[in-house]
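pls design
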């Protein structure tokens, strides 16, 4: 196998950054068994959000909102859902300023 063939082989089997990111999101979404629907009641998974590496870079306003919302219950509104009804981004009806990844929310009660 010459150098050109080796490079072509490596390039063929190398994943792009987007593919790695997609794999990671798929892995994360497989951890979440039940997707959320409009009207569901949820709570923030505050411990999970706070434990993230990038949490320190977020704003003080976001910190105070997350930390003060430990026991609050919110209503789900799917943000830009797909044709099949799924959306990984969730808007909270009571606090529309903030958007959350559905893995950061804990289902409390199914909506109507």
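designed seq:
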């Amino acid at each position: 196998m010459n150098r050109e063939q080796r490079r072509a082989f490596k390039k063929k089997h190398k994943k792009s950054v987007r593919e790695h990111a997609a794999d990671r999101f798929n892995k994360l979404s497989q951890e979440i068994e039940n997707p959320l629907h409009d009207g569901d009641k949820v709570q923030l998974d505050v411990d999970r959000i706070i434990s993230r590496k990038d949490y320190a870079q977020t704003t003080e306003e976001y910190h105070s909102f997350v930390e003060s919302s430990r026991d609050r219950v919110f209503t789900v509104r799917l943000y830009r859902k797909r044709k099949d009804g799924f959306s990984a981004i969730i808007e909270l009806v009571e606090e529309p300023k903030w958007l959350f990844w559905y893995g950061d929310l804990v289902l409390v009660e199914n909506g109507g």
